[in-house]
Give the backbone structure.
Amino acid sequence: MRRRTTPDSFDATAVRPWNAQLDGLGYGGDYNPEQWPAEVRDEDVRLMREAGVNILSVAIFSWATLEPREGELDWTWLDETMDSLHAASIQVALATATASPPPWLTRKHPEILPRLADGTVLHQGGRQAYAVTHPVHRDYALRMAARMAERYGDHPALALWHVDNEIGCHVPRDYSDSAAAAFRDWLRERYTTVDRLNEAWGTTFWSQRYADFDDVLPPLTVPAIVNPTQQLDFDRFSSDALLDYYRDLRDTLREITPHVPTTTNLMTTTATKGMDYFSWSDDLDVVANDHYTIAADDERHVELALSADLARGVAHGAPWILMEHSTSAVNWQPRNRTKAPGEMLRNSLQHVARGADSVMFFQWRQSRAGAEKYHSAMVPHAGTDTDVWRSTVDLGSALQRLGEVRGSRVVARAALIVDYPAWWAAELDSHPTQELRYMDEVRSWYTALWDQGVTVDTVTPHTDLAGYDLVVAPTLYLVDDEGAANIARAAERGATVAVTFFSGIVDSHDHVRLGGYPGAFRDLLGVRTEEFYPLQAAETVHVTGKAVGGDATADLWTEKTHVLDGTEVVASYDDGALAGHPAVTRRNVGSGAAWYMGTRLERSGLDALVGRLVEESGVAPDGIGPAGVEIVRRRSNDGATTWLFALNHTDADTTLHGVSGIELLGGDAVVGDLAVPAGAVRVVREA
């Protein structure tokens, strides 16, 4: 990989806040004026004022319009757009316009196109048809970014650089020749010598030993099973290569506009596996995230909460930008669901409750043509006499009334460990079961905590855990010695630590830790597993013990575990091959405790167990309400003010007790009881 570096003279403190010119929270979306004639653009500005829009992402997919032929630039429409938005007091997150190369570039340089593992070339005609590692593409992209910075760097509408777009969304793994060469360079830097590479990859197996780095390929399609550590390192490399591309574009912008902040829109969802976003966080002046609910998910509001908490985790707890979500249906799911009345506002304010300081959509005006013409927008095909437009205006008004929460933070005493390398490694092939999905385990534990009303921070194994009373590590299959020691220290300091099955099994090279599972956590947990007993499809076992609610059902996974001195068995298998063996254990550690779950409990059993962990740790929920009513608080940085967000995801009206203050959306005083109608949101500045 080839990358310029930020000059040593760069002063990060001189970068202005992205929202310095905004009054309160940000509101807007992707704006694509190049798709529309002048009269529509004029109407757009009028409607934006009506809706309360104050920030827009512009020029994301504009390269071929700005440079229709190589070296021939037409800035007219973008100049007019920047000027008209500034006149309307609307700020711009201006893109580098590099999110999709123009057809003339891929025709002239087809070598920049990415490839799949089987050699299939991904051609021009969609978007992101580029290999981030190819020097020719890199040169063209950097030149385009520099042109944007030189032309608009001093424009008063410019608030933020929007670098490329959803980097890695469509090509998280590229197997082209340029990627292969960059992968070898990455390996040389990581291992220094080919002997160290051979040791790390265990290449004595299947006669894979390398004599030279030049012999190494990406994990292409092969006759049998690709070396697992080769796959894992290619995952690491690919995430780094995508980050390297972002850094190169960012540093090009910084050389010309050092005062303007930069970001790119991440996709911290339970489905986006390709990039280790925690390793990206320090390179973003503000974290921006895209999120779309999944129509087939009956608990999509819980997945939204987890994704928002992931974005906040990547931001180290700081406020972040919701760069994209949808006003209603999307276009890319098997069955694209129209949002119910009030759902768009509820989705939006759920992100705000969990730390977003801006709410933005894809896109402002629904396209007439192209692949996303049936993706909803703030201005729909049917125009302004629509529920969608009225919801757009109502949301803008609501965000104006919530402007005072800007800059405040969510504070949590429970931590959920999420680790992308562990995710990659846990889902490699040739494991005890191919049915295990890392994010399913993370989400099941998150859901149990959500059901208890407990707000959590998402953290990595290396995060300082000193401020947390409850730490949960689901399926942390891969963990290095430092991460395992960090988690153990949390228990020693007084936290309740919960570790689940298939954790601590391998080191950072995907080498099994010998001596019995769970490897890195054996001493902390006081258990030793001699063999895994994965369950077959539809096979279940019963688990008994007060900690799981008396009698619970488990599936997917069991294991033959022995307890060491001082470890208590709190639940056992009641039937199956392991009847009588421990299923859940607990051990006193320092001032805290370490729990081990050797199986996957169904929901009621997990809820009971999490209730026990919450009680033992002393972690209190942000509020008590009926099932399906979400309560989250944001707090001012000085701790003097708190804002309670109550989101009713049910079809029944409810009342929360013990709430006093001013309800900001309606302006009413609240003394003791807060009514939250079905599907509604209430935000109270607490007394």
